[in-house]
Write a structure and sequence with these properties.
It is built from 14 helices and 16 strands. Helix 5 links the parallel strand 5 (127-132) and strand 6. The longest helix is centred in the C-terminal third of the chain and has 24 residues, at 298-321. Helix content is 38%, strand content 18%. The model has no long low-confidence stretch (mean pLDDT 95). An eight-stranded mixed beta sheet has the order 4-11-10-9-8-5-6-7, with helices on both faces. Strands 12-13-16-15 form a four-stranded antiparallel beta sheet. Strands 1-2 form a two-stranded antiparallel sheet. It has 398 residues and is of the alpha/beta class. It binds pyridoxal-5'-phosphate (PLP). Residues 48, 109-111, 135, 181, 185, 213, 215, 242, 244, 250, 255 line the site of pyridoxal-5'-phosphate.
Length: 398
Amino acid sequence: MSSQSRGVSYSREMFSTRTNWNLNTTRLAESLARLRASKRKLIDLSASNPTEVGFRYDGASILKAFISPSALKYTPDPSGLRSARLAVGEYYLALNEHVSADDLILTTSTSEAYSYVFRLLCNPGDELLIPSPSYPLFDFLAELQDVKLVRYPLFYDLGWHVDFHALRQAITPRTRGMILVHPNNPTGHYTKPSERETLNTLCAEHELAIIADEVFLDFNLAGNGARSFVSNRDALTFTMSGISKISGLPQMKLSWLAVSGPEEQKREALGRLEVIADTFLSMNAAVQIAAPALLAQRHGFQEQLIGRVRSNLAELDSQLVEKKECSRLAVEAGWYAVLRVPVTRSDEDLAVELLEEHGVYVHPGHFYDFSGDGHLVVSLITPEREFSEGLEQVLGMF
Ligand SMILES: Cc1ncc(COP(=O)(O)O)c(C=O)c1O
């Protein structure tokens, strides 16, 4: 089979099947591109880039942190510079968790941390369990590592819960681990302590690892003091986080992987991870040297972000009082809210109509694997005035 691209013909067999993606743009993406090109006003209720929604950063301190003569020396360490790992340890200490620098591996992104762990745990075709609904990047990450994802459903009943019956049924001899997003994106719920206990029992029974994505851990709105998985010792556990969300600095590319669990398994995992990391040595010196200062930025950033999220949630609730047909699901943490809306058309059609007729961009629920229509996801970090205006348009559709 051959294709034609810019006048050069080639055979699809030149490329791996794992990259046989459908690269056609969706109707929604096309509408968005058209609207952007037309320069019409766009209200983006999907905003996720913290550097573009009007938060104040201490630019002088951030830039100063990069000016260091040590950045002129190459002192590679596969786990990441010890000074940077110690700074991550300090971050956990502030959360009352003890994480040794020896149990940390620095990565350029959470995605890179996932790929290391997938490589560590899985042979081609092995399976990992992922929650549904959740963050949409997993499919690509898994395909690139030849890993098969098997979904376990979460269900909503005055809050989100793991469907353990379905989870147990999803475990096969090829299952190597389960992914938790704690708190989950976009549902904004934490794994409950009782769920953690059951997960640990299941993992011990089936020799599975836990992969806990905690990028939103600090954005707790419920004040329920949800604990990190870094202290989980009952199963081999890989906890991931980074400053993209914690300090609102996704451009700096500083994330990490904390390994915990039964001592022998933990040592073996760390030894193997170091070889994976050593193969790439992808961290750059400057950002590692700046790590303590970049992590220190989190206080001012998180205060602003949580203030905005609370204010937008209050606005959402006040608009919903007037719109009984629509509701929102409970949010414990994070940057997003899930709206329940009447199913008058597919979520995709609704999102396209909102964009083309009202210039408002929202994510349809299927982006996050919601089963069935009637779910829209809105970003709570959108600047307040835009959020209120955009939401009026969304609710005005019903
Ligand atoms: C749950 C979750 N994990 C990971 C990431 C990406 O993090 P990073 O920028 O560190 O790769 C995101 C980004 O939105 C996310 O929502």
